[in-house]
Amino acid sequence: MSKLAIIGGTGLADLSNLKITNKQMVHTPFGAASAPLITGELCSESVVFIARHGHGHTIPPHKINYQANIWALKSLGVEQIIAVAAVGGITEKMSPGAVVIPHQLIDYTYGREHTFFSDDFNPEQHIDFTEPYNERLREALIMSKQAVDFELLESAVYAATQGPRLETAAEISKLEKDGCDIVGMTGMPEAALARELEMEYASCAVVANWAAGKSKNVITMQEIEKNLIDGMKNVRELLEKTLPQVL
Ligand code: HPA
Question: Which of 183, 186, 224 to mutate to test ligand 1, by most ligand atoms within 8 A of the CB atom?
Answer without folding.
Answer: 183
